[in-house]
C-alpha cells in the first residue's frame, strides 16, 4: 500500500482551506550546502532518474517530495531538467513511482514559477492523463495539481484550452470515489469562472 505524506492525505475540506490560504513559497534562507552546490544536487537527481534502478529512483522521488516543501529547493530543481523526469514517471508501471512523481507535481503547481513552467512546456495534458490512472491517490494528485495551476487566470485559460472541461464532465459520471468527485467539482467551479469558460462550455 502506498505510503502517502500527511499533507497529501488531507480531507478535501482541509485541502480547500489550505489551497485558499496558499501563497507562493517564500525562499528560505539558503543553507551553506545549497549555497555551495546550487542546483548540482538536482542535476545529479535528473541523471539518476533516467536509470532503470527502481529502488534508487523511488528513494530519490521521496527526497524530492521532502525537498519541495521548501521554496528555495523547489526553485533550484525547476532550473534543471528534473521536471521532465518527473513527468516521464507518469508512464511508469510501478505505482509508487507514479504516485510520488504526481505528488511532487502538486508542489510544483503550487508555486508561481512552477505553474508558469507547467503551462509554457505544455505539461497540463500529461497531468490530465493521470485522471485515468487506476490508483485513486494518483487521480487525486492530478486534480489537486490542476486546481493549483488554476490559481490564476492564465492557468485557468490554459487548462480550458487543453480541453479539460469535457473530460471533467465525463469523469463526474465515471468516477466512483467521493473525495475525487469533490475535487472534480472544485476544479469545474474554478474553470467555469475563467474568462474563456463561457465560450468553451457553450
From TrEMBL:
Domain of life (superkingdom): Eukaryota
SUPFAM superfamilies from the UniProt entry: ARM repeat
Name of this protein: Uncharacterized protein
Species this protein is from: Strombidium rassoulzadegani
Amino acid at each position: 500500500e502506498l505510503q502517502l505524506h500527511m499533507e497529501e492525505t488531507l480531507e478535501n475540506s482541509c485541502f480547500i482551506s489550505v489551497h485558499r490560504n496558499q501563497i507562493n513559497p517564500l525562499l528560505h534562507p539558503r543553507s551553506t550546502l545549497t549555497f555551495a552546490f546550487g542546483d548540482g544536487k538536482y542535476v545529479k537527481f535528473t541523471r539518476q532518474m533516467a536509470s532503470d534502478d527502481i529502488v534508487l529512483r523511488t528513494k530519490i522521488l521521496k527526497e524530492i517530495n521532502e525537498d519541495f516543501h521548501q521554496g528555495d529547493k523547489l526553485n533550484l530543481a525547476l532550473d534543471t531538467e528534473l521536471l521532465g523526469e518527473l513527468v516521464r514517471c507518469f508512464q511508469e508501471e510501478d505505482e509508487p513511482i507514479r504516485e510520488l512523481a504526481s505528488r511532487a507535481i502538486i508542489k510544483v503547481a503550487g508555486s508561481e514559477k512552477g505553474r508558469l513552467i507547467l503551462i509554457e512546456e505544455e505539461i497540463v495534458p500529461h497531468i490530465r492523463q493521470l485522471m485515468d490512472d487506476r490508483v485513486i491517490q494518483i487521480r487525486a494528485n492530478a486534480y489537486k495539481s490542476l486546481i493549483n495551476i488554476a490559481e490564476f487566470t492564465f492557468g485557468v485559460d490554459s487548462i480550458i484550452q487543453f480541453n479539460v472541461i469535457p473530460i471533467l464532465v465525463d469523469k463526474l459520471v465515471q468516477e466512483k470515489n467521493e473525495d475525487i468527485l469533490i475535487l472534480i467539482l472544485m476544479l469545474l467551479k474554478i474553470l467555469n469562472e475563467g474568462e474563456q469558460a463561457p465560450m468553451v462550455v457553450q
